[in-house]
Amino acid sequence: MATAAPAQDTLSAFDGAKGFMPLAEGLALYAAAVQAGALGLPLLEVGTYCGRSTLLLADAARAAGITAITVDHHRGSEEQQPGWEYHDPSVVDPELGRMDTLPTFRRTLHQAGLEDHVVAVVGRSPQVARLWGTPLGLVFIDGGHTEEHAGGDYEGWVPHLAPGGLLVIHDVFPDPADGGQAPYRVFRRALASGAFTEVSVTDSLRVLRRTAEGI
Ligand SMILES: C[S@@+](CC[C@H](N)C(=O)[O-])C[C@H]1O[C@@H](n2cnc3c(N)ncnc32)[C@H](O)[C@@H]1O
After folding, report:
1. Which ligand 1 atom is the nearest neighbour of the CA of 21?
2. What is the predicted pLDDT for the residue at 1?
3. Per-residue confidence (pLDDT) for residue 4, from 0 to 100
4. Which of 102, 150, 189, 212 is 20 to 30 A from 158, alpha carbon to alpha carbon?
């Protein structure tokens, strides 16, 4: 069977979008979203930024006739603030002097023709998760990379992941020399819970399947 691929327009938009996801990881995320789409439940992303990864979830959601939800406060993570390694001054609101990635995200999604397949939620992940009540087919964790934020994303969203659903975690670095350890600890926690089985590893992107209840 041929592997499903995103539409060429989506790949071009991904290529041109601001963001942090390399293509190989993007394609692994897309493959997971296509698999999870078969459950007929929404796909949820924590960490929209400018929509680079959202484009791929949106494309998979369109193909499956479902919706991708993406959650972000759009004020940037710690490492994206002025003076830090991943700061981009072009996504600062000139009036407020604070980061605001929402306009760029909306432009990216509109230009790719994928707006109809995404619901963007602007807010803090734990606050949104507390209000959530719909089972999810996929949870993609790519929000804040501190212990507090990555752990909060796991605790907030994983309870909503349906049986057979996929948990995808970005920036999992077993070796501290390669990057921060919070996403890796979330990955270890998921495996240790006994509720997940590892499905694939693509560079720093890990895909796990929910095979039992619990978090
Ligand atoms: C690494 S970027 C996401 C990258 C994006 N997935 C991509 O592929 O380009 C992390 C994002 O998470 C958001 N974020 C960090 N902590 C958050 C929180 N507690 N609630 C909501 N969004 C958060 C930041 O604003 C930032 O846009």
Report:
1. 8
2. 45
3. 82
4. 102
CA of 45 to the centre of ligand 1 (A): 9
Distance 99 CA to ligand 1 centre (A): 12
Which residues' Cβ are closer than 6 Å to ligand 1?
19-21, 47-49, 52-53, 71-77, 101, 124-125, 142-144, 149
H-helix or E-strand containing 168?
A: strand 161-169
- In single-letter form, the type of residue at position 54 comes to T
For the chain, how many residues are written? 215
CA angle 169, 175, 170 (to 5 degrees): 15
145 catalytic per annotation:
yes
Q: Tell me which residue has its CA closest to atom 24 in ligand 1.
A: 76
Report DSSP letters for 51-111, one per residue. SHHHHHHHHHHHHHT--EEEEE-SS--GGGSTTSTT--GGGEETTTTEE--HHHHHHHHHH
Active-site residue (options: 73, 117, 145, 149): 145
Ligand 1 centroid – CA 108 distance (Å): 16
Question: What domains does the chain contain, in order, with CATH numbers?
Answer: 8-210 (3.40.50.150)
Global pTM?
A: 0.97
* pLDDT digits 0-9 by tens, 19-62: 999 999 999 999 999 999 999 999 999 999 999 999 999 999 99
Report residue 159 as tokens.
């309870």
Q: Which residue has the tokens 């495996």?
A: 191
Mean pLDDT value of segment 188-200: 98
